[in-house]
Write a structure and sequence with these properties.
Elements: H1 3-11, E1 39-40, E2 47-48, E3 59-62, E4 66-70, E5 76-80, E6 92-97, E7 102-107, E8 112-117, E9 132-137, E10 141-146, E11 151-155, E12 171-176, E13 180-185, E14 190-194, E15 210-215, E16 219-224, E17 229-233, E18 255-260, E19 264-269, E20 274-278, E21 294-299, E22 303-308, E23 312-317, E24 333-338, E25 342-347, E26 352-356, E27 380-385, E28 389-394, E29 399-403, E30 419-424, E31 428-433, E32 438-442, E33 458-463, E34 467-472, E35 477-481, E36 497-502, E37 506-511, E38 516-520, E39 536-541, E40 545-550, E41 555-559, E42 575-580, E43 584-589, E44 594-598, E45 606-607, E46 618-622
Parallel strand pairs: 2-45
Antiparallel strand pairs: 1-8, 3-4, 4-5, 6-7, 7-8, 9-10, 10-11, 12-13, 13-14, 15-16, 16-17, 18-19, 19-20, 21-22, 22-23, 23-46, 24-25, 25-26, 27-28, 28-29, 30-31, 31-32, 33-34, 34-35, 36-37, 37-38, 39-40, 40-41, 42-43, 43-44
C-alpha cells in the first residue's frame, strides 16, 4: 500500500494529525503544539460568506492560512483554513487573524469576540475586559486595548509576551506576535516585551515618537510620527531578500502604514505606493505591477493582501488553503462534489468554483492545486473532487483534471474521446464515455483501475479510495479493486441498481425500487442502513459517513460525525443532491442554494459566493462593499 493511502485512511473516518512549520506572526498562521486539542466553540452550522455591502471603513487581515475582510456595514468575510464565522456575530468594526488558528473581532458595541484554536486560552476573552477599541491576535496569545486605554493580554506566555508592564500607562495601539508584544502609548512612546532572542523587543534609542507598530515572527517595525519607518530584530538573509526583512529600502520615502508578516514586511507610503521585502519564496513580497494606489495592506504568513484606492482587494503569494483567492458571489448551484479537504461546485450557468485545501499546486504535469480552477476551462457540466485531485467534464464532453498526479490520476489519456461522466477517487480516475465504455487510470495497486473485460456498456461509475464500482445500462452492479472489507463483493440478492457510491472501504447502492443497500467497512455504522429510512433517490458514501436524498427530497446522514459531518442542519429543507467528503458534507437545495458543514480545517465548508479562480500568484477582484 502506498503511503498516500495511509493519509487517506486516516482522513476518511479517523483523526488526522497534521504538523506544520512554525513561521508565525501577526497576523499569521499555524499554532505551536498545544498541550491539548481545544477550540473555542462556535455555531458549526454551514456558513455562507455574506455578499459585501456598504458603510464603515473596510479592513483586511491576512493570516498564515486564512484571510478576513470587513465591508462597509461591518460584515466579516473570511476564507482559507479555519474560516468559520459565528452565525450570531453581528456588525464588526475590526478584525485580527491570529497566527495559531484563532480570530478576534471588535463588535460595533465594543464587545470582543474570539474563536478558533484555544489550546492556550488565547480565544477565551476575560469576563471583566469591558469595551474594546482594538485587538491583536498573535500566534497563541491575544492583546486588546480597552476604550479607556488599558491593555490586557492573555494566552501563551512562553516568552513573557502576555505580562503587561506595570508602568505602561494608557495605550493607543497594540501588536501581538509570536513570542513578543509591542504597543504605542497615548503619548506616542513605543514599548515592547517578551522574547528578545533576535533583539526584536529592544527599541532603538533614537526612534523618537511612534504612530504605529507591527510585529512579525522575530522582528519589529514602527512608523514614527514623522513618517519614517524603522525595523529591528531578526534579519537573517536566508529568507529571500538578501537584505533581509528588517532592512528598510533606502528609497522608501514617507510611510503611512507598515505590516509585518512572518518573514516579510510591507509598507504603504503617503503617496499610496506599496513596497514589500524579505522572504519571497511564495511570491508574497512581489507586489503586482498593476496594483495602483493602496490604502491598507496586511502581510500574512506566506501571502499578502492589499486594499486599493479604486475599490479592489488584491491578494498574492502562497495559496495552499485558498487564503490568497479572493471570493465573489457563487450564485445558484446545480451540482456539488466534496473531496478530501476541498469542495467544488458547478453553478447553474456552468461555471466551476473550488475552494479549500490547495496543497498540490506544484506537480510537473499539472501545475495547479486541486482547488485551483484552470482559467481556460470553460463551461462545465460535471465535476468530481477526489482525494488530492479534481476532474471536470466540460459541456463539450472534454475531460480536464488537475492537482496531484503522482500516480498519473490527473493525467488525461490523449485518446480518451468524449466523456459523459467522471469520478475522481483516491489516486485513480474513472470515466464513462458517451458510448458507455469505462476507462480508468492512475494508481492500480489493488486493481482498481483495471476495468473488467466483460463489463459491457455502463451508465455510471464511482471511484472510491481503492476500489471502483459501475452500474451497467441494464442495471447490473460490478465492483473491482481492493476487497479487504468485502467492499467489492456485490450482494447476490441486490437486484437491479440505479446508482452506486464507492466510499472509503465500503459501498452503497440504490436499487431501481429505491431501496438502499450498503456493505464493506462499518466501523462507524456508515454501512448500517437505518430501519426507518424508506425509499431513496440518491446516496453518497464518504470517509466514514453516509448521506442519502429520500424520495421526498429530505436529507438523511449517519455514521461518523466527529466533525459534525453527519449532523444535518435543522433548517436545510428539501435537497436535490448531496456529496460526502472525508469529514464534511455539502448539499444542493431545490432552489439551487448550497450548504456545507463538518470539518473546515482548510475552508472546505466555507462557501464562496462566485466562481473562484487563481491565475499565477495573484488575483484582482472588485468587492462592491469595500469602497464606493
Amino acid at each position: 500500500m502506498r503511503w498516500v493511502f495511509v493519509l487517506f485512511l486516516i482522513g476518511f473516518g479517523f483523526p488526522l494529525l497534521v504538523t506544520t512549520s512554525a513561521l508565525l506572526t501577526v497576523p499569521s498562521g499555524d499554532a505551536p503544539l498545544a498541550p491539548k486539542s481545544s477550540f473555542a466553540v462556535i455555531d458549526r452550522r454551514s456558513y455562507t460568506m455574506p455578499a459585501l455591502r456598504t458603510t464603515t471603513l473596510p479592513q483586511v487581515s491576512a493570516g498564515v492560512r486564512k484571510t478576513c475582510v470587513l465591508n462597509r456595514v461591518g460584515q466579516l468575510y473570511c476564507w482559507g483554513a479555519h474560516s468559520d464565522v459565528p452565525n450570531d456575530l453581528g456588525p464588526v468594526r475590526q478584525v485580527s487573524v491570529g497566527g495559531g488558528g484563532h480570530t478576534c473581532v471588535v463588535a460595533d458595541d465594543g464587545r470582543l469576540r474570539c474563536w478558533g484554536n484555544n489550546g492556550y486560552g488565547q480565544a477565551e476573552v476575560p469576563e471583566d475586559l469591558g469595551p474594546v477599541r482594538q485587538v491583536s491576535a498573535g500566534n497563541a496569545h491575544t492583546c486588546a486595548v480597552t476604550t479607556a486605554g488599558t491593555l490586557r493580554c492573555w494566552g501563551w506566555n512562553l516568552g513573557g509576551q502576555t505580562i503587561v508592564p506595570d508602568d505602561l500607562g494608557p495605550v493607543s495601539q497594540v501588536s501581538a506576535g509570536w513570542l513578543h508584544t509591542c504597543v504605542v502609548t497615548t503619548v506616542a512612546t513605543l514599548r515592547c516585551w517578551g522574547s528578545n532572542t533576535s533583539g526584536e523587543t529592544t527599541v532603538p534609542d533614537n526612534l523618537g515618537l511612534a504612530s504605529q507598530v507591527s510585529v512579525g515572527y522575530a522582528h519589529t517595525c514602527a512608523v514614527t510620527t514623522a513618517g519614517m519607518l524603522r525595523c529591528w530584530g531578526s534579519n537573517t538573509d536566508q529568507y529571500g531578500n538578501p537584505s533581509g526583512q528588517t532592512t528598510v529600502p533606502e528609497d522608501l520615502g514617507v510611510v503611512s502604514l507598515v505590516s509585518t508578516g512572518s518573514l516579510h514586511t510591507c509598507a504603504v507610503t503617503m503617496a499610496g505606493r506599496l513596497r514589500c521585502w524579505g522572504e519571497d519564496v511564495s511570491g508574497q513580497s512581489t507586489v503586482p505591477e498593476d496594483l495602483g494606489a493602496v490604502g491598507q495592506v496586511s502581510a500574512g504568513g506566506n501571502h499578502t493582501c492589499a486594499l486599493t484606492h479604486d475599490g479592489s482587494l488584491r491578494c498574492w503569494g502562497g495559496n495552499n488553503d485558498g487564503h490568497a483567492t479572493v471570493p465573489h458571489d457563487l450564485g445558484a448551484v446545480s451540482l456539488v462534489s466534496a473531496g478530501y479537504l476541498h469542495t467544488c461546485a458547478v453553478t447553474a450557468a456552468g461555471a466551476l468554483s473550488c475552494w479549500g485545501s490547495n496543497t498540490n499546486n506544484d506537480w510537473l504535469d499539472n501545475p495547479v492545486g486541486q482547488a485551483t480552477v484552470p482559467p481556460d476551462l470553460g463551461a462545465v457540466s460535471q465535476v468530481s473532487a477526489g482525494y488530492l485531485h479534481t476532474c471536470a467534464v466540460t459541456t463539450a464532453g472534454t475531460l480536464r483534471c488537475w492537482g496531484d498526479s503522482g500516480a498519473g490520476q490527473a493525467t488525461v489519456p490523449h485518446d480518451l474521446g468524449v466523456v459523459s461522466q467522471v469520478s475522481a477517487g483516491g489516486e485513480h480516475t474513472c470515466v464513462v464515455k458517451t458510448d458507455g465504455a469505462v476507462m480508468c487510470w492512475g494508481y492500480n495497486g489493488s486493481g482498481q483501475a483495471t476495468v473488467p473485460g466483460d463489463l459491457g456498456a455502463v451508465s455510471q461509475v464511482s471511484a472510491g479510495s481503492q476500489h471502483t464500482c459501475a452500474v451497467t445500462t441494464v442495471g447490473t452492479l460490478r465492483c473491482w479493486g481492493n476487497n479487504a472489507d468485502n467492499q467489492s463483493t456485490v450482494p447476490p440478492d441486490l437486484g437491479s441498481v440505479s446508482q452506486v457510491s464507492a466510499g472509503f472501504q465500503y459501498t452503497c447502492a440504490v436499487t431501481t425500487l429505491g431501496t438502499l443497500r450498503c456493505w464493506g467497512a462499518n466501523i462507524s455504522d456508515q454501512a448500517t442502513v437505518p430501519g426507518d429510512l424508506g425509499t431513496v433517490s440518491a446516496v453518497s458514501a464518504g470517509g466514514g459517513h453516509t448521506c442519502v436524498v429520500t424520495m421526498a427530497g429530505m436529507l438523511r446522514c449517519w455514521g461518523d460525525s466527529g466533525a459534525g459531518q453527519a449532523t444535518v442542519p435543522g433548517d436545510l429543507g428539501q435537497v436535490r443532491q448531496v456529496s460526502t467528503g472525508a469529514q464534511h458534507t455539502c448539499a444542493v437545495a431545490v432552489d439551487g442554494g448550497l450548504r456545507c458543514w463538518g470539518d473546515n480545517r482548510s475552508g472546505q465548508t466555507t462557501i464562496p459566493r462566485d466562481p473562484l479562480r487563481v491565475i499565477d500568484r495573484e488575483e484582482r477582484v472588485y468587492l462592491p462593499g469595500v469602497y464606493r
